[in-house]
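Exercise 7. Given the encoded structure of a 694-residue chain, write a plausible sequence.
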């Protein structure tokens, strides 16, 4: 009964980077149901996750007490039943658990300790987490799941545009007449953003979808380019080749706002569509048509997802997209822009807040003495290390090498999310001391020495920043269960035990400090967010709701110009061969979120999509002698899983698509840990695989 609630609380959906605003309807201190409200990114709309994916917060597996590993516990492994953990852990008081956590980290100390945060943390939690690692241990070994998501996009944007955030909100598509969506499946992964894309197509906008896997947005597309996996650079360079050859570029814009054009132009000469068609699998005439369509637009946007970023050439892919927008002058005007669709609800904010090893908050380089001095003055404690820290994947390698022996992991689940996850699990098991702060005994918490019970998003105060650069207020709607506490409080208590002079009493205190060191938050205050729910950065005055489009006049690079960086074709790290003849790619499904810790504990979502599955073309299933719904065995150079197979014509006959939410058939046992040299992102989107009837 939707009328049956005592009170309602305005907050933000905890799942994807669209950042839909929600009204949580509460009865007897439980969330009964959720409705969309009029946020700037969703205008009342919600997808199935936002609408029905809330009851994980009341799941019986929720952690309600701090836990400490028993002295007589079985050897560390993926062997803890989250509903029956007593053989492995014992309950502890907060004082006992915090002392154990801090003492264990301090006993190793310095560069022997590393921190993984999460893009599900609030901005304030992310800021505190990176500050604790930097200040408490004197180095920059702190990273989070952006490394597995858009790190390569950010590397390319920082290099060529001077800023890692989107240049325009996705809602700007309302003013565009052409849009490219590449390596993204927004109907499943950014469903409310996809509603704006569909409306755009309905109004007559030309929607160009590029994806090695077919997808539902195809129905709304003027062009669907189902290119060969890993052939992004050859396809995009061919399109740009046509724009150069036919002089469709915007010479005035290039001259006024960019640099290195002549090098880009010369580089593209080798990439004729006729030459590239065989590599990318798209015929030359279609490539020419797409080039003319994009270059002929009055206003055009480019959206991309992890199909672009999760490759060893992910940074090159993003460089091509940036070059395409620059040569056609499609940045800085209404309806134009570059928009990497962010994955998690706060991956933009957690990155902005400095939870990355090479940057302090607001992407200020750790190597810059002036930057470090400014932070040291505000932080008033200790020197900040000038050396870049290790990334997520490098940290786990360093554990195997014995260089890192203790970790503090906040809301992140590397035992499911890292590539070659058996390697990650072995690293977690090898640690001398692991502190995990989370709401469930996740797969990662299986390996913990101390587990600190934290709060779900609906149980705490804090701000988050969505894909549109909109900073939004999350409010506590229900109390945390048992003795679970807000994450910011836990990190502060740990910091105090590490001897740091922290006196924060509320997330608003943390946000206040962030505004002192982060120019992006100028004119954005806690009180303003309380009153208005959302402000987009940059906000030019205390009343400005924020700028949906940036870089109309100049780019935030030293000379004010954006840069063309030419990209060459690099083959995927593994190519199919006789032993592993097919290509595996991974991703998400509409109903399940990332490693499934929340959505698989949401009754409706788990009912809709209860079983681990992969997708294969019907002709492949026939060849294997497997009926749809039958089991297949997938094997790569890292390992094997058995999984139910679905028949799906969207998947090419030589491909298999595997969602990564299912622990019982974990896709990341199979994925390739080879990384992009710039963004250090693993090649989740391409592994050579053998598929057999199980
Ligand atoms: Fe939540 Fe994203 Fe769905 Fe919006 S589109 S309701 S933010 S999961």
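Solution.
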């Amino acid at each position: 009964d939707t009328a049956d609630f005592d009170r309602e609380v305005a907050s933000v959906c905890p799942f994807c980077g669209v950042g839909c605003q929600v009204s949580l309807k509460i009865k007897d201190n439980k969330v009964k149901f959720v409705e969309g409200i009029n946020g700037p990114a969703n205008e009342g709309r919600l997808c199935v996750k936002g609408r029905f994916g809330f009851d994980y917060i009341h799941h019986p597996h929720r952690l309600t007490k701090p836990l400490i590993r028993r002295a007589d516990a079985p050897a560390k492994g993926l062997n803890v039943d989250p509903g029956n953990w007593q053989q492995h852990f014992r309950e502890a008081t907060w004082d006992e658990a915090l002392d154990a956590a801090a003492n264990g980290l301090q006993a190793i100390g310095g560069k022997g300790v590393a921190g993984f945060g999460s893009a599900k943390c609030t901005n304030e939690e992310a800021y505190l987490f990176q500050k604790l690692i930097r200040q408490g241990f004197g180095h920059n070994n702190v990273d989070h799941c952006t490394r597995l998501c858009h790190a390569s996009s950010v590397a390319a944007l920082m290099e060529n545009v001077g800023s890692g955030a989107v240049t325009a909100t996705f809602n700007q598509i309302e003013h565009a007449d052409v849009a490219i969506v590449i390596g993204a499946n927004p109907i499943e992964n950014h469903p409310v953003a996809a509603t704006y894309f569909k409306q755009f197509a309905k109004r007559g906008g030309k929607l160009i979808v590029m994806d090695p896997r077919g997808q539902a947005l195809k129905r709304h597309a003027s062009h669907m380019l189902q290119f060969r996996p890993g052939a992004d650079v050859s396809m995009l360079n061919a399109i740009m080749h046509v724009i150069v050859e036919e002089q469709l570029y915007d010479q005035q814009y290039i001259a006024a706002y960019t640099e290195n054009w002549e090098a880009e132009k010369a580089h593209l000469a080798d990439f004729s569509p006729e030459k590239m068609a065989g590599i990318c699998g798209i015929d030359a005439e279609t490539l020419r048509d797409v080039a003319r369509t994009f270059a002929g637009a009055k206003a055009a946007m480019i959206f991309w997802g992890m199909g672009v970023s999760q490759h060893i050439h992910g940074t090159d892919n993003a460089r091509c997209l940036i070059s395409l927008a620059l040569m056609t002058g499609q940045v800085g005007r209404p309806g134009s822009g570059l928009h990497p669709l962010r994955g998690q609800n706060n991956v933009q904010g957690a990155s902005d807040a400095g939870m990355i090893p090479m940057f302090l908050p607001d992407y200020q380089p750790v190597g810059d003495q002036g930057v470090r001095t400014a932070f040291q003055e505000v932080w008033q404690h200790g020197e900040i290390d000038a050396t870049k820290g290790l990334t997520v994947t490098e940290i786990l390698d360093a554990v195997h090498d014995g260089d890192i022996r203790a970790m503090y992991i906040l809301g992140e689940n590397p035992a499911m999310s890292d590539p070659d996850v058996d390697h990650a699990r072995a690293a977690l098991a090898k640690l001398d001391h692991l502190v995990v702060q989370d709401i469930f005994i996740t797969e990662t918490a299986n390996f913990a020495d101390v587990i600190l019970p934290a709060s779900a998003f609906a149980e705490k105060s804090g701000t988050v920043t969505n894909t549109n650069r909109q900073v939004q207020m999350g409010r506590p709607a229900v109390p945390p269960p048992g003795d679970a506490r807000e994450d910011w409080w836990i990190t502060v208590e740990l910091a105090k035990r590490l001897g740091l002079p922290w006196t924060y009493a509320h997330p608003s205190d943390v946000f206040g400090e962030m505004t002192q060191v982060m120019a992006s938050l100028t004119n954005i205050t806690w009180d303003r967010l309380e009153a208005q729910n959302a402000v987009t950065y940059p906000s030019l005055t205390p009343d400005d709701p924020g700028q949906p489009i940036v870089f109309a006049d100049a780019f935030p690079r030293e000379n004010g110009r954006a840069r063309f960086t030419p990209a060459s074709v690099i083959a995927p790290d593994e190519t199919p061969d006789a032993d592993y003849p097919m290509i595996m790619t991974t991703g998400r499904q509409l109903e399940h979120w990332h490693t499934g810790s929340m959505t698989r504990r949401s009754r409706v979502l788990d009912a809709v999509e209860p079983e681990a599955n992969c997708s294969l073309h019907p002709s492949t299933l026939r060849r294997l002698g497997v009926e749809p719904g039958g089991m297949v065995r997938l094997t790569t150079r890292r390992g094997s899983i058995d999984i139910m197979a679905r028949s799906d014509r969207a998947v090419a006959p030589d491909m298999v698509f595997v969602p990564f939410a299912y622990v019982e058939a974990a896709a990341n046992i199979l994925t390739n840990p080879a990384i992009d040299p710039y963004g250090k992102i693993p090649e989740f989107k391409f592994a050579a695989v053998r598929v057999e009837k199980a």
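Remark. The mean pLDDT is 96. Students should compare their own answers with the one above.
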